[in-house]
Amino acid sequence: DIQLTQSPSFLSASVGDRVTITCRASQDGSNYVAWYQQIPGEAPKLLIYAASTLQSGVPSRFSGSGSGTTFTLTISSLQPEDFAIYYCQQLNDYRLTFGGGTRVEIK
Amino acid sequence: QEEVVESGGGSVKPGGSLRLSCAASGFIFRDHYMTWIRQAPGKGLEWVSYISSSSSYTDYADSVKGRFTISRDNAKDSVYLQMDRLRAEDTAVYYCVRGVRDSFFHYYFMDVWGKGTTVTVSS
Questions:
Q1: Chain B residues touching A43 at Cβ < 8 A
Q2: Residue spans of alpha helices (H) in B1-123
């Protein structure tokens, strides 16, 4: 099975910072990844799908890129409401896999 | 407003059973795959199962295969998860989620999430 590894697992950043989270697949599989944001105590929320398509209603400071085994989520200017946990997710061999998550906290 | 609402969670002893339900509204339920995702306390997200729009295709994570059964009733806009032979490691919040896939099954993402229902397996 393909595993997804996110890095870093934790990052501390300030409001206004540019933040990049990486999701690496253990082998070449789908060229598509989705990204979700989860505020603790709440359900996850879809941010990006098909690697780079912004979900309707999601602020444009979020962007996604990548292909093959390496994908990135970028927040161009971190806002107070962005402090959360972020997960990548992929479909491979009809199975859904999530990365372990990246917690973004306030510096 | 597109929405899914889970119910049926609770506490059960190891080896017991529980049936989760999920009621959808605000969208054409019969057109969509549906998914169950779970999150153990303090842990990340784990895919459990999904079912195709017509129930013709289902799949399960290895951790639940043979113990859990997903089903749906398009007349009732509902999806279900029958959980048998429950184990302590099944303790989690279970989310019902609408799935979206492309024609070739190259990708599958989830765009409408419920608030979750909590399942606790403990003696």
A1: 95, 113-116
A2: none
Taking chain A (107 residues) in runs of 10, the rounded mean pLDDT of each run is 95 96 92 95 97 97 96 96 96 93 94
Whether A83 contacts A104, CB under 8 Å? yes
Contact yes or no for A95 and B108 at CB 8 A: no
Contact criterion met (CB < 8 Å) for A95 and B45: no
Lookup: tokens for B101:
């896939």
Given a contact cutoff of 8 angstroms between Cβ atoms, the answer to whether A98 and B45 are in contact is: yes
- Chain A residues 9-68 with CB within 8 Å of chain B: 30-32, 34, 36, 38, 42-46, 49-50, 55
pLDDT-based confidence at residue B104 (cuts at 50, 70, 90) = confident
The two beta strands, B92-101 and B108-113, are antiparallel
Q: Residues near B6 by Cβ (< 8 Å), separated by ≥ 6? A: B20, B21, B22, B94, B95, B96, B114, B115, B116, B117
B45 chain-A contacts, CB cut-off 8 A = 36, 38, 44, 87, 89, 98, 101
Do the Cβ atoms of A98 and B95 come within 8 Å?
A: no
